[in-house]
Amino acid sequence: MEFDLSWILLGLPLAFVLGWLASRFDIRQLRAENRRAPKAYFKGLNFLLNEQQDQAIDAFIEAVQNDPDTSELHFALGNLFRRRGEYDRAVRVHEHLLSRGDLSRTDRERAQHALALDFLKAGLLDRAEDALNRLEGTPFEAQARLALLAIYERSRDWPHATTIARKMHEADQGDFSTRQAHYLCEQAAALAGQADHAGALALLEQAVAAAPGAARARIDMARLQHLMGQPAAALATLKALGEHNPAALPLAAPLMVEAAAATGRSAEAQALLQEHYDGGPSLDVLESLVAIDTAQGAGEGARQRYVDHLDKEKSLVAAAKWLAGEKLEHEDFHPQVQRALDHAVKPLTRYRCAACGFEARQHFWQCPGCQTWDSYPARRVEEL
């Protein structure tokens, strides 16, 4: 049978034409898809700029369906879900990204960070902790450690918080020495509550070594030493506080008076407190000086201190203290007047957080309102 070359001559052009038509069809389809995806993307962006999040989410979902391999659209969609409080949907988006084998290392780390934020916002602290720990050694390491620190503080997991703070300090990610001291003081307070005074004292010594200029460690140490029947050691600790952090001495002034009285060194404490008071009048130091004078039998001298203070400061608190011991012409009305004054000065004797303005009758090392450390000055509201 002879082979007819005419079929080849006819088939080659036909195959060429069919191939060309197929390629044109594929190109047109690809162009159409590419046009649909950017159009949906920009539509979503426009809705987002107009704060129409529902419409933006619908547009991004459409864009993701048209081009499921686009990671940026997934990130945009996940962030939108998180902002709307739809944390379960945000988690699914970011977990889908992490399950992709073709995801670059940069995008994988970014998706891991986004997933950790989803868990944090949702209040799933255990899962957030695990996700954040996976960010060690990535560009998100510093942010992850800060988030872990917040988790451990919130759950009062002070040993883990101490470890993270030490890592950040050693990595030059900030000065966390004072924060480490606070965590050690918290652990010491827990041990002291269990009557483990030796263990608590050891932790407080570590806190002083970690942050020599921090006030809390020395104040807590002095209070513990006084409780253990070591007033001389407590007084020495408070004298060191006056040298390293004199601004915090008003917080420890009443304790200094007690320790000095127990050791028969009230004159020494009085001289130290007077020197501090002369450098800057303080209501707490004033009260401690009055307490020493009263204990020594100098009642009139003690009351004179309030008058001298009024020459330096316009203090309603000092005026009320002085008036409490004064004989009035209409003495029958004195109790009512004194009650009114005491009620008026009560808000002035509070402490106020410098970060959020939360006021409290006692001094806090960490604000109960905004959770900021060392935001309470060692001065009363009237003195600010």
Features:
mainly alpha, transmembrane helix, 384 residues, TPR repeat, repeat
What does this structure look like?
Among the domains are: 70 residues, no CATH class; 35 residues. It has 384 residues and is mainly alpha-helical. α11 runs parallel beside α13 and α17 runs antiparallel to α18. The termini are far apart. The longest helix is centred in the N-terminal third of the chain and has 45 residues. Helix content is 71%, strand content 1%. The chain is elongated. The chain has 18 helices and two strands. A hairpin with a 6-residue loop joins β1 and β2. The chain has a two-stranded antiparallel ribbon.
Largest sheet: 2 strands, antiparallel
Low-confidence region ranges: 33-37
Oligomeric state of the chains in view: single chain
With strands numbered from the N-terminus, the spatial order across the biggest sheet is 1-2
What is the number of beta strands? 2
Structural class, judged by helices and strands? mainly alpha
